[in-house]
Amino acid sequence: MNLFEKFFGEVAEKPKEELKRPPAQELPPFAPYSPTKENKKEEKPEKKTHPLSTPEEKKLEVGEKTGSFELQGTVNKVFFVKFEDGAEGIFKPKNGEAFTGTSVEKGTYFKRERAAYLVDRFIGFGLIPPTVIREIEGQIGSVQEFVPDAKTAAETLEHEKQAVASEMFKVWILDYLIFNTDRHGYNWLIRNQKIHAIDNGMSFGVRPGSEDEPFDHYFAHFNAPFPQEMKDMFEKFLSWEQGKEILRDLLLELLNKKETDAFFRRVEIVNEFLAQGKIPYAARNGLTFGS
Ligand SMILES: Nc1ncnc2c1ncn2[C@@H]1O[C@H](COP(=O)(O)OP(=O)(O)OP(=O)(O)O)[C@@H](O)[C@H]1O
Ligand SMILES: [Mg+2]
């Protein structure tokens, strides 16, 4: 029995109203994909459109590619892809991943893109565009929904960034949880006062080092009170036992056990800070990315 069947095989046969949905927590999408040979053999075409997948994810998972072009000037190979129903995505094939010299092994970035998205969905921050794993023309990789008409943070004026300050706090917490060491100004987009956190492949690493320090824009959040909305979301996630269990199993398909356990330890650390109402400045040294 694979993970998908374990959690949703039974649920899928029950009428909708019988679903035991966790209170006030939006069920995250569970998009079947085939990261292992074993899953690939078992996978039947109808599973690709399970009712719990969001429409956005389904489109990215099963849509036939109608056109694509490669973006220029990127470190990894990055393609803009258009699908038959008009959906647009950013495809980052495993084979196009470049060696970066960090603790994150080349050939695993695409899985981390998906893992980061799952964490964001389960917590409910809604910062990372839907991200799935699929094959396109024989190449496995991540496909992330394209955010049109957005500016990168690097191209955004300071006052526009001020308007998303409380969203930025969420990005800080998310990046700490996923240990993302790469949130520079081209890896977060702003559109209509909303942040879209893209390029999450350099996440869940374990190596300590000065290059893994948080970016300057995070320091503003030390000693600042947690925004209430963020506190509420995180607390809901913490009390959602079933969700945490499912998330652990899903992460274990994408990351190793050490990385998965480290993520859940960081969840506990954030929980402690929530209880204190803010991140104490003294915690700065213990909160560096990568350690
Ligand atoms: N989901 C998205 N929506 C819109 N634009 C995106 C999205 N994902 C990536 N891009 C655009 O493509 C660029 C390159 O993508 P990305 O940052 O993921 O590639 P990378 O090669 O891993 O990054 P880098 O070159 O910064 O190391 C981004 O800076 C952004 O402009
Ligand atoms: Mg980038």
UniProtKB/TrEMBL annotation:
Superkingdom of the source species: Bacteria
Name listed for the protein in its UniProt record: PI3K/PI4K catalytic domain-containing protein
InterPro entries in the record: P4KG1-8, PI3/4_kinase_cat_dom
The organism of origin for this protein: Candidatus Azambacteria bacterium RIFCSPHIGHO2_02_46_12
Biased composition (Basic and acidic residues): 14-23, 37-60
Region (Disordered): 14-60
Keywords: ATP-binding, Kinase, Nucleotide-binding, Transferase
Molecular function as annotated in GO: ATP binding; kinase activity
Domain PI3K/PI4K catalytic: 140-253
